[in-house]
Amino acid sequence: MKILVTGGAGFIGSNFIHYWLGKHPDDNIINLDLLTYAGNLENLKEIEHLNNYEFVRGDICDRDLVNDLVKKVDLIVHFAAESHVDRSVFSPRKFVDTNIAGTHNLLEAARNTGGVRFHHISTDEVYGHLGPNDPPFNEKTPYAPRSPYSASKAASDMLVQVYFTTYKLPITISHCSNNYGRFQFPEKLIPLIITNLMLGKKIPLYGDGKQIRDWIHVDDHNRGVETIIEKGRIGDTYCLGGNNEVTNIDIARMILDIMGHDEDKIEHVADRPGHDVRYAIDFSKINKELNWEPKIDFQKGLREKIKWMIENEQWWRRIRSGEYQDYYKQQYG
Ligand code: NAD
Ligand code: TYD
């Protein structure tokens, strides 16, 4: 199979490429990524020499480029997005361009090529947020996005659904909860806490820190994506979750404990505007229909993630200094 992965230099996309080539070593992958601040080719060092892997630097909004690439593949796995909620609050425009117009561009190219299989990576955030006693999100939960990020993802999901309804494009969509694992950009909560502690800094917790996220290991997420690609029903949507609701302050405490620091490292800072209170996912549909469930224990996964960040200090220090952005020039001229 020939696969176009978009956003494959980012956190989840780069883990997906490692995962997929590990499991399907005869498949071919083209990785289309613009290398925004979030794209880091150093995530792909171990596989960049393979003959069945190709990197293309480009924008999913570039029609000619996308049309050319889509003609070469059987499947598109679409990760590329602006993904950070805080950035969307301060500069929403890019979220509209990449997440909505970029997704539409890919859908058009897939349609023009006669119906390339298309898997769209969405998020649980399109469903809005939950109160403490609300049942978790499932595939039937009405959309109610609350940030420019989640609104742009919701709009892109609807375009993807409409390309199935209107044009019979063979699509599937997955909605996953908060991922953690190696290669996560250190602006997101878990790697931010770890790097701040390694730098002797405090941990900034928004508001009271009692907001809840459902955390899932990135490899469990990508195994879910693989399951949907291989066995999912065309036109369907699947929710993926970690069965692991934790408050932000408890995440901070767990990391402080593992890394041997005291709670005085926690600093409560101004809350995020419109901060979503709680996310939780009911993944019983994919569990019953496709036999998927998350497998990686959170405490174990978190310990491994911290160990990885300590052993790969250069990886995140090069992000902080900006040196990671030179790697493209060094490797690709
Ligand atoms: P990320 O920000 O780490 O990576 C995004 C990648 O997309 C980067 O490599 C960036 O260079 C690339 N990109 C951005 N704009 C582009 C453009 N116009 N053209 C081509 N490439 C572009 O994001 P992530 O955390 O890996 O998330 C990947 C996908 O998963 C996103 O669609 C996100 O909405 C979704 N998701 C993320 C999480 C999470 O916890 N991180 C949870 C659920 C869903
Ligand atoms: P984040 O990792 O940005 O993911 P998302 O907003 O997509 O859930 O944030 C996870 C949670 O951690 C969220 O409730 C916001 C909170 N948070 C902090 O308290 N401090 C921080 O510095 C960051 C980045 C996030």
TrEMBL record:
<dbReference type="InterPro" id="IPR016040">
    <property type="entry name" value="NAD(P)-bd_dom"/>
</dbReference>
<keyword id="KW-0520">NAD</keyword>
<dbReference type="Pfam" id="PF16363">
    <property type="entry name" value="GDP_Man_Dehyd"/>
</dbReference>
<dbReference type="InterPro" id="IPR005888">
    <property type="entry name" value="dTDP_Gluc_deHydtase"/>
</dbReference>
<protein>
    <recommendedName>
        <fullName>dTDP-glucose 4,6-dehydratase</fullName>
        <ecNumber>4.2.1.46</ecNumber>
    </recommendedName>
</protein>
<keyword id="KW-0456">Lyase</keyword>
<dbReference type="InterPro" id="IPR036291">
    <property type="entry name" value="NAD(P)-bd_dom_sf"/>
</dbReference>
<comment type="similarity">
    <text>Belongs to the NAD(P)-dependent epimerase/dehydratase family. dTDP-glucose dehydratase subfamily.</text>
</comment>
<dbReference type="GO" id="GO:0008460">
    <property type="term" value="F:dTDP-glucose 4,6-dehydratase activity"/>
</dbReference>
<dbReference type="GO" id="GO:0009225">
    <property type="term" value="P:nucleotide-sugar metabolic process"/>
</dbReference>
<feature type="domain" description="NAD(P)-binding">
    <location>
        <begin position="4"/>
        <end position="304"/>
    </location>
</feature>
